[in-house]
Specification:
The protein is an alpha/beta fold. The protein has 22 helices and 10 strands. Its main location: membrane. It is a multi-pass membrane protein.
Length: 623
């Protein structure tokens, strides 16, 4: 049953406590995924069956060879015995080769089925993550998602080869092998199989213990990857504050906890392997002791005793694998439950069944008594907000931190859904139109100037990969990037570093502006996206954007007044409500909060720069 969007840590806890019925449902779902490759499954299972039967023939042939050798010893001139021995030797060789060939087929095709299952789950998992809402990602650490999509997915992928194929192999070897032993000699058969219950019990117990420690190890590795990811993402901050000893201490502590548990797992494995080996050799000693007496008494031949010992050697590994089989089922149930729990989540933001594409005509954006509360918050970020923006109009949003400016920017493209009220474009509720058409019409230039590790050209054309070079050049010129790119030896083919760290903050922000201008949206939102750009460059960018402002609604979220003083209307927000609105001049005349902020923030030389009377550049001017 699908659930609402839930963070992975809650999914993991729910999976770990799920009952056996839920586990069996998960195993069936994984099996059904494996059956999507029916001919590969058929080849793997048939090859397993043939390889197991051929393996069971080897003890019989070796026992026959021993008896034939004894006859040769007693009658060296016997031609029939020599021919029979050669025939048996050739049969052993042929059976061994055949077993090796079919075992190869078994391993190859069972692994192929597993990799196909992993491929399908990996795509489904990645696609689901792309569609989960901002609200989900706000509560989730990316390291947890990576761990879930790698370690858990790998545990599910291996089920066909370590679970389904192994259960067929062990059923044939233990079932038919045990039957052959008991039908040959009941007493020797029971002695030969006496180690089986103990080994099966110890193997199952140890594997279940290993499974429990593996789950804990997975959690500790998740913490380790989280520490490493945060360190790599913030490496410049670490260097700036000389925090290497602190970071090394954090990493060493997390790594030590994982290492201690790994040692515990090794200890469990070694102790149980030793106990199982001892029981096997004890059973083999009993078979030799009793069997030798039967050989002396003439009840069985030496070849029969050899066959018993060879059967035991063959059965030793399958019996030990019973624990691995139990572990495979348990691991698949747990890991699969986590994976499917995420895949089955109901999307918080999705298209309605009858959603139609957004049709933009007049380009009127309207907030109608909108309220919004973040999932992790108990208080409303926005309450009863109403305003209208028309095509060709530029709206500025300003206010203290936490007043709801960025929230408004994220509600328009439906990164979040409103708690109450509605947002419309040309009278169409944005919840009633398709997400694809809405996000084509509404584009946000984010505060976080994220760039991909690829060329400048690909970063700029990210929203339109088939754009012509001239379009990319025009967008770059509008974002005041053309001169900078012209100075680079590789030009637009220059590859930026991870997250664009090889560029300055202002260059990264201009890159994101250029990327946005490629799309020609109906509603263009700048979410404090020029904070790292100097005032002169910002003025030139603003002039370029204003030249095309008649084609769209433009919304500017900013902390610097000189970023939005040119707006047709400025909304001053506080605690999610509009407390003042009007043009720059009208708000100054009101002598309210906006005017107070203006007196606090602006200096005479900055006022001149913001109004365009000079090209002098300056910073924010914050006291």
């Amino acid at each position: 049953m699908a659930m609402a969007e839930t963070p992975p840590d809650e999914i993991m806890r729910a999976a770990d406590t799920a009952g056996w019925k839920a586990g069996m449902r998960t195993i069936w779902r994984v099996t059904a995924l494996s059956l999507r490759s029916p001919w590969m499954v058929a080849i793997a299972l048939i090859s397993t069956l043939i390889a197991a039967v051929l393996q069971l023939l080897i003890p019989v042939l070796l026992g026959r060879a021993v008896d034939q050798t004894q006859r040769l010893i007693t009658d060296p001139a016997g031609q029939d015995a020599t021919a029979a021995l050669w025939t048996t030797a050739l049969l052993v060789l042929a059976v061994s080769v055949g077993r090796g060939v079919f075992t190869t087929f078994q391993n190859y095709y069972s692994e192929s089925v597993g990799h196909r299952v992993g491929y399908a789950l990996r795509l489904a998992y990645y696609e689901k993550i792309q569609r989960l809402s901002f609200g989900f990602h706000d509560r989730v650490h990316s390291g947890d998602l990576i761990t879930l999509g790698m370690l858990d997915l790998e545990g599910v992928r291996m089920f066909f080869s370590t679970g389904l194929v192994r259960i067929v192999l062990l059923s044939i070897l233990i079932g038919i092998g045990g039957y052959m032993l008991l039908t040959t000699d009941v007493i020797l058969g029971l002695l030969a199989l006496s180690f089986v219950p103990f080994v099966a019990w110890r193997s199952s117990v140890s594997q279940l213990k290993l499974r429990g420690t593996w789950l804990e190890l997975q959690n500790r590795l998740s913490v380790l990857s989280r520490v490493m990811e945060e360190n790599l993402a913030g490496i410049r901050v670490v260097r700036a504050f000389a925090a290497r000893p602190h970071e090394m201490g954090k990493f060493d502590a997390a790594s030590t906890r994982a290492l201690d548990l790994a040692h515990e797992r090794v200890d469990i494995r070694v102790r149980n392997t030793s106990a199982m080996t001892l029981s096997f050799f004890a059973a083999m000693g009993l078979v030799l002791w009793v069997g030798s007496g039967k050989v002396v008494a003439g009840e069985i031949t030496v070849g029969t005793l050899t066959a018993f010992l060879t059967f035991m050697t063959i059965l030793q590994m399958p019996v030990r694998q019973l624990g691995m089989l139990v572990n495979s089922f348990a691991r698949t149930a747990t890991c699969g439950e986590r994976i499917f729990a995420l895949l089955d989540l109901d999307l918080a933001i999705t298209d309605k069944p009858d959603a139609a594409p957004l049709a933009v005509t007049d380009g009127v954006l309207r907030f109608e008594d909108v309220s919004f509360t973040y999932p992790t918050s108990r208080t409303s970020t926005i309450g009863g907000l109403s305003f209208t923006a028309r095509m060709g109009e530029t709206i500025g949003l300003i206010g203290p931190p936490g007043s709801g400016k960025s929230t408004i920017a994220h509600l328009i493209p439906r990164f979040y859904d409103v708690t109450a009220g509605r947002i419309t474009i040309d009278g169409q509720d944005i919840r009633d139109v398709t997400l694809a058409s809405l996000r084509h019409a509404v584009v946000v230039v984010q505060q976080d100037a994220f760039l991909f590790t690829t060329s400048l050209e690909n970063n700029i054309a990210y929203g339109d990969p088939w754009a012509q070079p001239q379009q990319i050049a025009d967008a770059s010129a509008s974002a005041q990037l053309a001169q900078f790119i012209a100075t680079l030896p590789a030009g637009y083919e220059t590859v930026v570093g991870e997250r664009g760290t090889s560029l300055s903050g202002g260059q990264r922000q201009r890159m994101t502006i250029a990327r946005t201008l490629m799309l020609r949206p109906s509603v263009l939102i700048f979410d404090d996206s020029t904070a790292a750009v100097d005032a002169g460059t910002e003025q030139r960018i603003r002039a370029t954007i204003q030249a095309r402002a008649a084609e769209r609604v433009t919304i500017i979220v900013a902390h610097r007044l000189n970023s939005l003083m040119h707006a047709d209307r400025i909304l001053f927000l506080e605690e999610g409500r509009i407390i003042e609105q009007g043009s720059h001049e009208e708000l100054l005349a009101q002598n309210g909060r906006y005017a107070a902020l203006h007196r606090l923030q602006m200096r005479p030389d900055e006022i001149k720069t913001a109004s365009g009377t000079t090209d002098k550049t300056s910073g924010e001017g914050q006291p």
